[in-house]
């Protein structure tokens, strides 16, 4: 069984639509676990009728996703952002990939938005992922639950947790790079401008690979980590 883990924070405006899109998958046996990071709006209350479980965890995408994975009972995990839409047959695609011997994988991604550069960004993300065997959260990463547990889950860092997990998982084997596309919102690119956001993300990723502290990078990205 596939368990979909969705970390959320102040997503009252979008969480209902996001979960409604998963109801066909639930009808086919997939479980949906929503993990709220301490929203100040009605996110958790809105999610409860549309999810199998709504949990609360300290704020931080990695922490929230690990908390959701710990509650899962299925043999495969899919980590899904609230602003990302899965293809209708995502469960079957994942089952086929895992049955074919893959331990983990991701989907190709399309970025929703009117700016023509967003199509280029999505294409480059997919190509880079195939060349490097590194996946990002926007690509809806999936993994066998026992493998996820064996590698210790997502590292507890406030940014680049998806890249860090990918680097660990690819030591076990390359990801299944599925051609069906997930569609993710272009809101973060459009908020500050597509080109400035692309350049910022390139700089942050390079800095991370050169050993920069993820906490400092998160602040540069505009995220304020929760106090521990």
UniProtKB/TrEMBL annotation:
CDD domains: GT_2_like_a
Cross-referenced InterPro entries: Glyco_trans_2-like (IPR001173), Nucleotide-diphossugar_trans (IPR029044), Trfase_2_rSAM/seldom_assoc (IPR026461)
TM region positions: none
Annotated GO CC locations: plasma membrane
GO molecular function, one term: glycosyltransferase activity
PANTHER family: GLYCOSYLTRANSFERASE (PTHR43646), GLYCOSYLTRANSFERASE 2-LIKE DOMAIN-CONTAINING PROTEIN (PTHR43646:SF2)
Name by which UniProt lists this protein: Glycosyltransferase
Organism ancestry: Bacteria, Pseudomonadati, Pseudomonadota, Alphaproteobacteria, Hyphomicrobiales
């Amino acid at each position: 069984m596939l368990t979909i883990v969705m970390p959320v924070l102040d997503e009252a405006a979008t969480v209902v639509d996001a979960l409604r899109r998963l109801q066909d998958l639930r009808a086919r046996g997939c479980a949906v676990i929503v993990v709220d990071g301490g929203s100040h709006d009605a996110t958790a209350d809105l999610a409860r009728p549309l999810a199998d479980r709504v949990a609360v965890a300290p704020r931080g995408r990695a922490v929230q996703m690990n908390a959701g994975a710990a509650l899962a009972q299925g043999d495969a995990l899919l980590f899904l952002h609230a602003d990302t839409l899965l293809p209708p047959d995502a469960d079957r695609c994942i089952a086929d990939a895992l049955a074919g011997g893959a331990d983990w994988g991701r989907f190709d991604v399309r970025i929703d938005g009117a700016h023509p550069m967003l199509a280029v960004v999505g294409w480059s993300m997919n190509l880079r992922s195939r060349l490097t065997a590194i996946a990002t959260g926007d690509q809806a990463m999936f993994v066998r639950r026992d493998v996820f547990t064996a590698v210790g889950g997502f590292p507890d860092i406030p940014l680049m947790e998806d890249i860090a997990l990918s680097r660990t998982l690819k030591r076990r084997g390359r990801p299944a790079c599925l051609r069906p596309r997930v569609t993710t919102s272009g809101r973060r690119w459009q908020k500050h401008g597509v080109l400035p956001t692309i350049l910022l993300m390139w700089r942050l990723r390079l800095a991370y690979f050169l050993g920069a502290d993820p906490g400092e990078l998160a602040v540069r990205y505009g995220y304020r980590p929760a106090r521990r």
